[in-house]
Fold this sequence. Notes:
Number of strands: 16
Helix content: 25-40%
Radius of gyration: 22 Å
Structural class: alpha+beta
Number of helices: 11
Strand order of the largest sheet: 1-2-13-10
Order of helices and strands: HHHEHEEEEHEEEHEEEEEEHHHEHHE
Strand content: 15-25%
Shape: globular
Distance between the termini: 31 Å
Amino acid sequence: MTEPTLREKAKSYLTLCYRELNKQDLFDKRWEEVEQSIRDRGMYELLDFELDYGTKVAWRNSNKCIGRLFWRSMEVMDQRSVDSMEAIFTALFEHIDFAYNGGNIRSTISVFNAHKGIRIMNPQLLGFAAYEQEDGSIIGDPKHLRFTKECVKLGWAPKNGAFDLLPIVIKKEGEAPAWKEIPDDIITLVSIEHPNIKAISDLKLKWYSTPIISNMTLEVGGIEFMASPFNGWYMGTEIGSRNLADEDRYNLLPVVAKQMGLDIRDKNSLWKDRALVELNQAVLYSFRKAGVKIIDHHSASKQFMQFMRQEAKEGRDVTADWSWIVPPTSGSTTQVFHTEMEDVTHSPNYFYQENTWG
Length: 358
């Protein structure tokens, strides 16, 4: 199948945009301008409202996201005029602070110029470093081992802790990568404690407040924005069942189970399951105690079903990747587990970039 041309992608999105925003009377004139720009320059620019709506529709079309009920509420920070490295860092720090919003996390995207070769090297703006020890063990988040090594090469000083925030690294075409530490006053780390099991609290676990994805390309109307970090708020299982529990991440289930006095030699004791549930409860309890917005997987599942009903009323089919939508804990107890989903990609959308640094 032939890849659609820029002209075709532009017309497809703009037709959708002007129809859904009830601006059909303005479409013909606008399309003449866009078509002329593509003919003359091989490119065109989105108007402010076209970009704004495109980021939202891209979220609506994100097959791996369970939180799409709120797609219309995305706060859009148009940073296309930002050019210098210093200004890019400032804009990213502003995003972190604005999105956090005193704990009442706001879904936010910052969109940088698509034609300046801007790239954010971090998988997420916030992420924990990893340090390989002589015996092959790793302190920190193994997911970021290679990225941490690259940061050290650039001059960042390792701190050798389990929850050290990495610097932000950006690159512009024709320039060397640059890094900056995230200012302490915009960082919120939530201390993980359990309401009843002191042994879990004694592990002194932490996690950061806001998942700001920065390794995906926003595509709207054929224009690809390589630097377009965006965030929602956490679903508890992302932290409790994946980040802290996966064997190739913090791998804490054996540690938690031992703290709980469970026999990890006996699989029939379901020690993994019991430790997983308590770790997830600790995450939810801790975020709520700290006043940081988070959602449990049962509520998120119900919201996704509501999203599907809303979309049906609008005459739109919901596409989704079942393996991502179903929560990693107690999946069969949620309604999404029993729902058929078609994994078809639509535009606008967010696409993973080639993993440069890991």
